[in-house]
Amino acid sequence: MAVTVLKTIEDMRRYNAEVRYKGQQIGLVPTMGYLHEGHASLIRLARERTEHVVVSIFVNPSQFAPNEDFTAYPRDFERDRQLAEAAGAEVLFAPEVAEMYPNGFATSVIVHGVAEPFEGVSRPTHFEGVATVVAKFFHIVGADFAVFGRKDYQQCAVVRHLVRDLNMPISIVVAPTVREADGLAMSSRNVYLSSEARQASTVLYRAIREGKKAIESGERSRAAIEQRIGAVLAGEPQAVPDYAAAADADTLAQPEVFLPGQQIVLLLAVRIGRTRLIDNEVVAAP
Hints:
Helix 2 links the parallel strand 2 and strand 3. The protein has 286 residues and is an alpha/beta fold. The protein has ten helices and nine strands. The longest helix is centred in the middle third of the chain and has 16 residues, at 126-141.
């Protein structure tokens, strides 16, 4: 069945009312478009739970800083439509910027704590934009659950806190990171990589694996784990890290020494040429 494209909040709410009238659930997969197999896996996961899957496509200007790539961010709506349809989406919700941020818009949502380190340092306005637009989509779509990819680990933590703190009636489902054959996490920004940069980008996954190996071999010192990760990154001339860190997987706090059994998240943000890539892995301390 062909996917239905909705452009307005009014039409989206009408769809919600029709599904609610049937007593059925809605699943939401929020995206910024330029879909790839990672997004398709999120859509298929949502489809396993309900036939009423909404994929939002919206390149959100409020989460880009002035020096970032909003205007250059890749867009291909027809390609997105085909991929979403093939993966099982029922609706594409693709509002214009003026629909989401009309004249006079003056409200934002700020999440403290988990939003402040790492991406919060490198991109200080980013999570305010993310939290605001996600809150809007949750209210507009009225979904019962939303599916996010674990590649954006800190974003998932921010969204979970947003939902918990504001008592939003929606469940958050986090799906595993989908990787290329050589380990690179799938991302819409991978299209920016030249062939040489694409080859260099595998250093992220190699660094993650080195940190994981250190932990699994018994290392619990945060500095030692981060040193092992940093050494791999230092071996790739094109890699310029924003951060390469180990943190508590729940709070993102950074103790000097992790406790036995503690869940540790390894977080990377690395520039390869002009492209900024992120990756992560969760490992239990021995």
